[in-house]
Write a structure and sequence with these properties.
Blueprint lengths: L3 E4 L2 E4 L4 E7 L8 E7 L6 E6 L5 E3 L7 E6 L4 E6 L8 E11 L2 E6 L3 E6 L1
Parallel strand pairs: 2-11
Antiparallel strand pairs: 1-3, 3-8, 4-5, 4-9, 5-6, 7-8, 9-10, 9-11
Length: about 120
């Protein structure tokens, strides 16, 4: 069983910054890829950023240059540094961890943390 707990959300003015954290329990963290997704009201959940177990990263075009994903395997934690926030970044942000073992994917989600950016 893997549990993911997000934190760091809140209310910030446009142009401000927040850092989200995703703390994971369990021994699979170091072999997992970790993703941040977000979902705004009335919209589909979208991938924001991802980091593999080897540290490779990718980002949605809408956040490139503003958001940075990183991981600390010693702390079983992934971070999402969000700078130059815009009102359109307002959403619930979810942490997702997944890994493959013998071709079978295991997938875990956190409960989400709310980010609200005021104009």
């Amino acid at each position: 069983q893997v549990q993911l707990v997000e934190s760091g959300g809140g209310l910030v003015q446009a142009g401000g910054s927040l850092r989200l954290s995703c703390a994971a329990s369990g021994s699979i963290f170091s072999i997992s890829s970790i993703c941040w997704y977000r979902q705004a009201p009335g919209k589909q959940r979208e991938l924001v950023a991802a980091i593999t177990n080897s540290g490779s990263t990718r980002y949605a075009d809408s956040v490139k240059g503003r958001f940075t994903i990183s991981r600390d395997n010693a702390k079983n934690t992934v971070y999402l540094q969000m700078n130059s926030l815009k009102p359109e970044d307002t959403a619930s942000y979810y942490c997702n961890a997944y890994y493959y073992k013998i071709g079978v994917k295991s997938d875990y989600w956190g409960q989400g943390t709310q980010v609200t950016v005021s104009s």
